[in-house]
Amino acid sequence: MAEEKDERIRLTPEEERARRKRSIAIAVTLIALVILFYVVSLVKIGS
Amino acid sequence: MSLIETSMIEPGSVSAKPRVSLSEPKDFLALLKPRVMSLVVLTAVTGMVAAPGTMNPVLAIVSILAIAVGAGASGALNMWYDADIDARMSRTKLRPVPSGRVEPDAALAFGLGLSIFSVMVLGLAANWFAAAFLAFTIFFYAVIYTMGLKRSTPQNIVIGGAAGAFPPMIGWAAVTGDMSLAGFVLFMIIFLWTPPHFWALALFKMKEYGSVGVPMLPNVAGEASTRRQIFAYSLILVPVGVAPFFLGFAGPVYGVVAALMGANFLRHAYAVLKMADGDEKMIPAKRLFGFSILYLFGLFITLLGETVVIRLLAGGAA
């Protein structure tokens, strides 16, 4: 049985680095948004 | 290990490597026009502080953030739409979209997403009147100015300048939920400041604007007419700049600063008026452009600082 050919493509180091930075930025933004909405909700409920 | 499926390869290019974005977070940050955002933050904070009434500090900070992001979103939409002409002008060719660092579709999605997000957050943190005002401002800049006026009339920046002038009114509306004469005066200061500021730039960048088909005033009406209109707008701007003092919502320090800086603004505008036709170096226009930025920052920082000090002193005395 012939071995299946791996047709997936390997990213260059630059592409990998850029993608990692974007992923981190998205994660940080999402965490910041969770905190933002939590704090705004607390203040709104408190007032 | 970073691998992606070949199913992501674009149709018709089965053997070719798919395009994988090289854009980084700083490229998306550049789409927001951070320098413009800093002016928007300053003017919106000034409107907020000058407004009668108080706002919870946390909600005030979130509101300012929303206004800043809204302004940035309209900047991203502007860069998405104008990528074709930005690529051909030295001042703008290194922007993220024309330089290829950000795909046009990504810039559009980023701009639209942040527009919706900023309006929703301002509505939740402050009130829906201010949020609607922010939505209108984004629409005005991205659609009316960028897609409509910019390439069709030499009065583009006169009308389009309103978009940049709305933030103090939005800041005011975030506190009070309505509009007032004082907020309108702050709007008028930026609105009247915009033509001399941008036409001074257009004078020494007119060849570039002309080559990409943007009908800036110097290319359409000529240098002499532009210089006269710069001076005329400056004559109206300077008294309006002092008006907050005479209307009672700015103190004497602001009055003095606005009068002195206004006099200097007029001096620069007069030098532009007297500039010779065909002046290659355009030194007076470059000086006016530089000073105009200082003028606007100076007025709003003084108004903001003096209002804060007066409120602190009043609070201490109470």
**Which overall shape of chain B is indicated by the principal axes computed on the Cα atoms?**
flat
Q: How would you sum up the major sheet of chain B?
A: none
Q: Level of helix content of chain B? A: over 70%
Radius of gyration of chain A, taken over Cα atoms and rounded to an integer in Å: 21 Å
Q: What is the helix tally of chain A?
A: 1
Overall residue-averaged pLDDT value of chain A? 88
Give the amount of beta strand of chain A, in percent: under 5%
GO molecular function (chain B): protoheme IX farnesyltransferase activity
Keywords (chain B): Cell membrane, Heme biosynthesis, Membrane, Transferase, Transmembrane, Transmembrane helix
Organism (chain B): Fulvimarina manganoxydans
Family (chain B): Belongs to the UbiA prenyltransferase family. Protoheme IX farnesyltransferase subfamily.
Entry summary:
The complex is a heterodimer of chains A (47) and B (318). Chain A has 47 residues and is mainly alpha-helical.
Write a structural description.
By secondary structure, chain A is mainly α. Chain A has one domain. Chain A contains one helix and one strand, in the order βα. Chain A has one helix at 13-46, and one strand spanning 9-10. The longest helix of chain A has 34 residues, at 13-46. Chain B has 318 residues and is mostly helical. Chain B has two domains: 23-178, UbiA prenyltransferase (Tetracycline Repressor, domain 2, Orthogonal Bundle); 180-312. Chain B contains 13 helices and one strand, in the order βααααααααααααα. The longest helix of chain B is centred in the last third of the chain and has 35 residues, at 283-317. The interface between A and B is medium-sized, with 21 and 23 residues. β1 of chain A pairs antiparallel with β1 of chain B, so a sheet runs across the interface. Chain B: Pathway: Porphyrin-containing compound metabolism; heme O biosynthesis; heme O from protoheme: step 1/1. Chain B: GO terms for molecular function: protoheme IX farnesyltransferase activity. Chain B: It comes from Fulvimarina manganoxydans. Chain B: Its EC number is 2.5.1.141.
